[in-house]
Amino acid sequence: MAVLTLNRQKLQENYRFLKDLFEQKQVSWGVVSKLLCGHKRFLQELIDLGIDEIHDSRISNLAMVKRLKRDIQTVYIKPVAKKNVAQMVEFADVSLNSELETIRLISEEAGKQEKLHKVIIMVETGDLREGVMGQDLVEFYARVFELPNIEVIGLGTNLNCLNGVMPSTDKLIQLSLYKQIIELKFGKSIPWVSAGTSVTIPLMLSHQLPAGVNHFRVGETLYFGVDLVEEKVIDGMHGDVFELQAQIIELQEKPLVPIGNLAANPQGQVVEIEEGNLGKSSFRAILDLGILDIDPKYLEPEDEEIEVLGASSDMMILNLNKNPQQLKVGDSIKFKLKYLGVLGLMNSRYIEKAVI
């Protein structure tokens, strides 16, 4: 079985880097845990960092967080489906919302559960995912303001999640102005301007974050140490908190070019023949994982001489060229991973998970 490992020390060092950064800027933040898919051991590693706020897009994951640490603040980070409102109110202390009718249902359910539910109203700033349009925001807030058992603790936005619209100082200043307008009109304090996710951190690093922005929701940069604008690891952080090790189950020298009449494979792909490879061979290794677990484009062999050729549902094929490392059946190949690669592996029950 292939193994996905989480390196505890590297995770801790990434966390301390971000904690220091946010403290210097006097910005609150929560850790997004959705990458971990509710895995109990990995969630415990997060909690052991000392965090006091966890965000997730799955109610079952937040339920696991509450079982591990009841007093941690949990945040549900997408509009909740109507049928799931009761569960969401039970396990999430805060939720991100952009639909008035949904907030009404949350208000009713919070009353039944004798709770005060906190809400961040999401504002559309251009990426065209969730969010209330700016021109409708004051009226929207006025209606939410009247609802019992609801406390609006912030205005938020999401950028770069759908259409790739990047955060900018101007967009975040606009979000801060909306907050000021509402506070003046209603005489009510809104504590947070929740500016976004890991993609907004580079604005902070380059001292371009507007003063009014005081809350972040961070996942990818914690786990991968990445500057999502420059697409590189931030100095002082680790990009390899997660690593995949997969075992070789076959290793033989074979032709580089398939033999026979070619048609589309099960993924709908037709292999293109490179004439220069006719008559040539190389050592090919088969690993014990496949597309069911991860899309090959989201992993990269640590050994740069190894090439990922493709995968079927549960086997992956590598080109070892002349196999200079003298690898054999039973040996493991190590891979660097991208965010969506780890997400696929975490969601696969066929992949072992371990902390090192």
Automatic annotation (TrEMBL):
<keyword id="KW-0413">Isomerase</keyword>
<dbReference type="Pfam" id="PF01168">
    <property type="entry name" value="Ala_racemase_N"/>
</dbReference>
<feature type="domain" description="Alanine racemase N-terminal">
    <location>
        <begin position="7"/>
        <end position="224"/>
    </location>
</feature>
<dbReference type="InterPro" id="IPR000821">
    <property type="entry name" value="Ala_racemase"/>
</dbReference>
<keyword id="KW-0663">Pyridoxal phosphate</keyword>
<protein>
    <submittedName>
        <fullName>Ornithine racemase Orr</fullName>
    </submittedName>
</protein>
<dbReference type="InterPro" id="IPR029066">
    <property type="entry name" value="PLP-binding_barrel"/>
</dbReference>
<dbReference type="InterPro" id="IPR001608">
    <property type="entry name" value="Ala_racemase_N"/>
</dbReference>
